[in-house]
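User: Second chain of the day. Same drill as before.
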Amino acid sequence: MSIATSTVEFLESKGLVITTAESCTAGKIITLLSQIEGSGSFIDSGYIVYSPEAKQRLLKVRPYTIETFNLTSCEVAREMAQGALCDSAADVAVATTGILGPDDVDGIPAGTICFAWAYRAPQGLCLFSRKERFIGSREQVQMYAAEYALKCLPYFYDRAWAGERG
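Assistant: Same format as last time:
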C-alpha cells in the first residue's frame, strides 16, 4: 500500500481534512493524495509558496522569522503550517521548506528539508516540526520529502491528541 493510500485511509478513519503549505515539495504532497480515489473528501487546500513574499502574504510568516532563522528552518515551517491551518477549515496542516539541491545554499546542505505539522486538537493548536536531510537528485529529494511528510502525519496526530507539543 502506498503512503498516500494509507494517509487517505487515516484521514478518513479520523474524520480529518488536510491542507498543505509547500515550498520545496511544490504541491507534491497534494498531488500524491489527489491520485487516490475518494481523497477529495479529505483535502481542503494546498498552498505552493516559494518566495519569502508569498510565505508572508499568503501564510502570514513573519519577516522576523525569515530574517532570524532563514527560509530553511523549522521556525518558518511551523509558521507556514499554522498560517495554512488558520486560513482553512482543515483539521491538519503539513508544511515543507528546504533545499532540494544539487548545490548547498547559504551553508545549508542540499537535501535539507524542514517540516511542520499543525493540528486542531481538543486542547487547541498543536504544532510539531522536524529537520531532515535526504540524499538524491532534486526529484528524489522532493519525493522523499513529500512521502516523509505524509508518513509522519499519523505519528504527530497521536502525540497531539495525547496533549503533547513539540
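The chain is about 45% helix and 25% strand.

User: Great, on to the next one.
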